[in-house]
Amino acid sequence: MKFYNSLSRKKEEFIPMNSPHVGMYTCGPTIYSFPTIGNWRTYTLSDLAVRTFKYFDYDVKHVMNLTDVGHLSGDNLGDSSTGEDRMAKAAEKEGVDAWSIAGKYGKDFLDSMSLLNIEMPDVIAKATDHVKEQIDLIKKIEEKGYAYKTDDGIYFDVAKYESDGNTYGELSTLDKIKEGARVEINPQKKGPRDFALWKFFAKGQKRHNMQWESPWGTGFPGWHIECSAMSMKYLGDQFDVHLGGEDLRSTHHPNEIAQSECATGHKPFVKYWIHGAFLLVDGGRMGKSLGNAYTIHDVINKGYDTLALRYFYLSGHYRRQINFTWEALDSAQNGLNRLRREVSKLGFSENAQAKMIDNEYKKSFEKALSDDLNMPESLAILWKLLGDETISLSDKASLVISFDQVLGLKLVQEDVENPDDIISTGQLSKEVQQLVKDREEYRNKKEWEKADEVRNQIGELGYEIEDTPNGVKFNIRY
After folding, report:
1. Which CATH architecture has domain 14-276?
2. Does the annotation list 252 as a binding residue?
3. Which residues are within 8 A (CB) of 15 and not within 5 positions of it... i.e. 6 or more apart?
4. pTM for the whole structure
5. Distance between CA 423 and CA 304 in Å, rounded?
């Protein structure tokens, strides 16, 4: 297997530190609001990586954090040590306390993972459950001479770190950040790149109810320290894979490396860094101010199958930006429906098993997975397999089971007693909904031939229409 390692900026052969065991950490959400579909692309990438490791018989321990304190709004301006605490800001907006915000959006995130068929990590670590570990790590950093105190917190001394022969910012261009340009000037900071390990409440600042006693005073941990403390607790001082969105390459991940390696005697922190690209929306950036920061709930409310979103993610390589539009999701929904219809023709037997067939399709699929998680190619191989009439149905069934262990599209649902699940109109894509309306208009006009033509079009998209005394019902064969 080969991955593009952001640390070396090249593809590298994957060699775990302690094969067949793999330690992997994913930067999860700050649970102050619903994640966007851009965020979900990263978490789906994480799931695909874990599934791929398991496919190749690695024993994976997967840890994901939930940030419920310390993530300040200043990170949007280039300095994550300034601004308001995102949890406190959301709490004030919704008229509740920060703990309620964490509970609400944390539960929603964990519940929503199943909607995209994302496997639950082995460890879900909340920052507020690991304050002791964060304080202990800051103590180590301080003891080694890399921390200093200001009026508003305890900071990591980047210049000191570099003066001892360490490289800072390998993942990004942090050395180009200029104080006063994008970063708010803090006269007590020794350097503009220094970042907060622990924050105090400023005089006159409204205190939120997430605060703890520490050797330096009452306050709360900085954003970056949590991931170092929690990953090292569950995976050790060194581990194999750290994954996140490409926005974390600029500050968060370089800061993790610096604080972790100085605390452990400069042991290399993580061997492979994997970053997923941004998701575009309508050809541009996504933002709440633009009204296009769509969530998975928006996808559901518009009547789409949430696995169509997963299918959409699979259509683009994780290191390349892909453009989300509702029309693109329509296409993904139709593609998923057609795929399910083709798979339903295979007639899965009770003894059908994964990975039993060793042929060119299996080899090609594994080659695509091994080439930096090439999911578009993997999906194309599945389609080619289904269209190959020289392969027996039983062999196809075995390979589909095997491939879907990674793709995670639920192509085989053994727990469904009746494969023809009745679905509602609201679950149909826009294209199918329009065809349904057209058919009803033709039927009302008694233009039966045109109505049948539309019915056939709907059938080509993977649906069967059933006219009942209670109205029209739609069936899809999973």
Report:
1. 3-Layer(aba) Sandwich (3.40)
2. yes
3. none
4. 0.84
5. 11
Nearest-angstrom CA–CA distance, 112 and 371: 29
Each residue's pLDDT tens digit, 447-467: 888 888 888 888 777 667 766
Which residues, 6+ apart, have CB-to-CB distance to 68 below 8 Å? 30, 31, 87, 98, 102, 106, 126, 127, 128, 210
Residue 297 marked as a ligand binder: no
87 in helix, strand or coil? helix
Q: Distance between CA 41 and CA 43 in Å, rounded?
A: 6
Is 288 marked within a binding site? Answer: yes
Determine if residue 256 is labeled as part of a ligand binding site.
yes
396-407 confidence digits (pLDDT tens): 999 999 999 999
Domain regions of the chain by residue span:
14-276, 345-415, 420-477
Determine if residue 27 is labeled as part of a ligand binding site.
yes
Cα–chain center distance at 342: 29
Q: Do domains 14-276 and 345-415 have the same CATH topology?
A: no
- For 205, 305, 461, the CA distances from 456, given in Å and listed in that order, are 65, 22, 9
345-415: CATH topology = Four Helix Bundle (Hemerythrin (Met), subunit A) (1.20.120)
Specify whether the CB–CB gap between 183 and 77 falls below 8 A. Answer: yes
Q: Read off the pLDDT of residues 47-101 as tens digits, 9 standing for 90 and up.
A: 999 999 999 999 999 999 999 998 877 776 667 777 788 988 898 899 999 999 9
Q: Residues 294, 297, 303, 309: is their CA dihedral positive or negative?
A: positive
* pLDDT confidence band for 444 (50 / 70 / 90): confident
Residue 445 class from Cβ within 10 Å (0-12 exposed, 13-18 middle, 19+ buried)?
exposed
Instruction: Write the CB contacts of 447 (distance below 8 Å, at least 6 apart in sequence).
Output: none
